[in-house]
Amino acid sequence: MSSTNTLHVFVISPDTRSERRFDPHITIEQLKSKLELFTGIPASSQSISVLNSEDDPTIVGQLSDDSKALGFYSLKDWQVLKVDDLNPSASYTGQLTDVSQVEKFELSDAAYAERKDSVLAYKQQHKVGRFAPKEQIKEVSPPKDISLGSRCEVDSSEAGLSKRGAVRFVGETKFASGVWVGVEYDEPFGRNDGAVKGERYFTCRPNYGVFVKPEKVKTGDFPELELDLDEEI
């Protein structure tokens, strides 16, 4: 364990994966209450195993005594807490990610092109995107105040939530027109790992990457925020 105040671990369950920080002095009972909030598994139904890493499924420990402190089990930073549901029928664990029973709707390119209520039909009718007259297409250039490697903060629609990170990409992309800014977040607020639709623009951990329009990005002195352990879940 790297410090007496904070333990960094990965938490995985049938429906979730996240990086978390915990106070090693909390009890396993308190830990289960926190885990319930983002895994959806009731504390009473949780079975918590310790893995060395996500690539190594070998169980090296079991958090079996609710009265013991988390630090009692001598966990190390970046080990994995694997949370299993002992009663999945009651909480529907795993059913949110099981799409095997969902019937797929498929539409051929030719059939889609004939529809009059599609996005393609709208763009053709209003001459936007690739259907716009060439004289209306304006050249775009990267913003001068956003440079690679600079610290930044991205506008958030959630009040009080600061999404900070570093600029990893600035330029045009294949997934949408115009200039986009690729950001590697400090926390897993993102949607990708720097790649979109098979095209890689930068590299980071899964769910740490995001692409936003330049107007949503502010660069400057934005250090990584320290988490308040009292509010950590």
**Terminal-residue CA separation:** 19 Å
Strand content: 25-35%
Radius of gyration: 23 Å
CATH class annotation of the largest domain = Alpha Beta
CATH domain fold name of the largest domain = Ubiquitin-like (UB roll)
Sheet with the most strands: spatial strand order: 2-1-5-3-4
CATH architecture of the largest domain: Roll
Number of separate structural domains: 3
In total, the number of strands is 12
Mean pLDDT: 86
Sheet/helix structural class: alpha+beta
User: Helical proportion?
Assistant: 10-25%
Order of helices and strands: EEHEEEHHHEEEEEEE
The name of the CATH superfamily of the largest domain reads Phosphatidylinositol 3-kinase Catalytic Subunit, Chain A, domain 1
Give a short account of the largest sheet: 5 strands, mixed
Q: What is the 3D form?
A: globular
Task: Provide a count of the helices.
Answer: 4
In the predicted model, the low-confidence regions spanning at least 5 consecutive residues are none
Topology:
Layout: E1 7-12, E2 17-22, H1 28-39, E3 46-53, E4 56-62, E5 79-85, H2 88-91, H3 109-114, H4 119-126, E6 151-154, E7 163-172, E8 179-185, E9 195-196, E10 199-200, E11 209-212, E12 217-219
Short description:
The protein is of the alpha+beta class. It is built from four helices and twelve strands, in the order ββαβββαααβββββββ.
Descriptive report:
With 233 residues, this protein is an alpha+beta fold. The protein folds into 3 domains: 7-91, Roll (Ubiquitin-like (UB roll)), CATH 3.10.20.90; 105-137, no CATH class; 151-219, CAP Gly-rich-like domain (SH3 type barrels, Roll). The chain is 13% helix and 28% strand. The strands form 3 sheets. The protein has a 5-stranded mixed β-sheet with strand order 2-1-5-3-4. A 5-stranded antiparallel β-sheet has the order 11-8-7-6-12, with no helix packed on it. A two-stranded antiparallel sheet has the order 9-10. Strand 6 and strand 7 (163-172) form a beta hairpin. It is found in: Cytoplasm. This is Tubulin-folding cofactor B. Residues 171-213 form the CAP-Gly domain. Belongs to the TBCB family.
